[in-house]
Structure formats: C-alpha cells, structure tokens
Amino acid sequence: MAIRNYSGQTFVAFLDISGFKELMKQNNRALKALNRLYQIGYDTIKAGSPIEGIFISDCGVLFVRDTDNKYQDLCNLLNGIKEINRRMLIDDFLTVTSIAYGQFKYQDKLEIEGIEKNAVYGGAYVEAFFDNEKGEPKIKVGQVRVINKNIPPEVIEAVEGQGDQTARLLKRKGKHFYYYWSIENPEESEELDRKYKDSYNLVFSGIVKALKGE
Questions:
Q1: Residue 211: which residues within 8 A CB-CB, separation 6 or more?
Q2: How confident is the model at residue 124 (pLDDT cuts 50, 70, 90)?
Q3: Is the per-residue pLDDT at 92 higher than 60?
Q4: Residues 127, 175 contacting (CB under 8 angstroms)
Q5: Cα angle at 164 between 161 and 167, to 5 degrees?
Q6: Is residue 126 classed as helix, strand or coil in its secondary structure?
C-alpha cells in the first residue's frame, strides 16, 4: 500500500519487537514474530485507517497526518498500537513503543527500476527512536509511552482532563505519559505497575541465585 508523501508536525511512533535478538536464535519463532507483526501492521494501517506507516525488519514507524484535532490524532495512533500489541500478545510476542510529537517527513523515492528507497526522517522520528533505544528511564517490555516534550498544550489539557477512555489510560510519569493498553479500567494501572515491578525483581533474584550456584 503506497504512502503519500508527508511533511509537517505530527505524532510519530517507533515500535519494535521485544527480545527479537533472542528470537533470532529460534528461527521459527523469529519468522513467526515478523509475519505476525507485518500482517497485524498491515491490517491496522489498511485503506481507510487514519494511521500510516512502514515496517522494516522487527521495527515499525507509524504516524498520523496532522489535523485540527491533535488529541484525536494521538488517540487514533494509540488505538492502532493497542490493536497491534493485543494481537501480538495472543502469540506471546511483545513490543515496546515510543511516541513523539514534532516535525516529520516521509518521502517515497524510486531511484532505480525495481529498487525502492523510502526516506523517513524528522525531529519526531529521531526523538521516538532514541527514546525507544536509549531513553531514561529505560522503556520496559510491553510499554507504550509518549514523550511530553513538544506536545501541543491542548493535547496535554485533554489528557489531564481525563475526558474519555483513552485519556484515562494515560498516566504521567516524569517526562512521559504511559499508555496502559492492556487494561480497560484505569483503576487497574497501579496493580499492573506492581506486577511489572515484581516480575523484574524476580528476574534479578534469579540472576543472583544463579551466580551463587543455588
């Protein structure tokens, strides 16, 4: 599906499959993960969807064309990412996603017949990519978060006003809004945070025991 060229301010998401390097050691699992990501991604950005994007290896770059309702633009992007994550989770695959707002440009270039080159760049893409790869605090498996910086004031107001379901599933922590895509009731967010913390503590305890030979 061809993507029309775009240049402007918008929300951009960088998404990748968690633990893909480990999955590469299990050829069938890695291939299945890629197939699922591409199929689900295609279903999510099919004709008529407000979301557009491309998938390369284990990563995806998703964006929405900026409209007068920037909060709805963000909601559309989050809903698409929720759909991808929920369907990936059925096969026990997880992703991590960072979202940024800012300048973004997508340009399709056909340089040589049969060889296609897609140029994707811009401040929002760079912010989302580096937050996903090296952001602080380090993004955890399964998390979706939005970088606060540069978000239009009306979007912040809409989110903090807790006006609808999407807003109520966004929780501000430091320089990010975290999106709790796996739950329906916002009151379950604290319990989910606790389970995240417990799971990481169990991993650490397991490493300590292994090093002690226990």
A1: none
A2: very high
A3: yes
A4: no
A5: 60
A6: helix
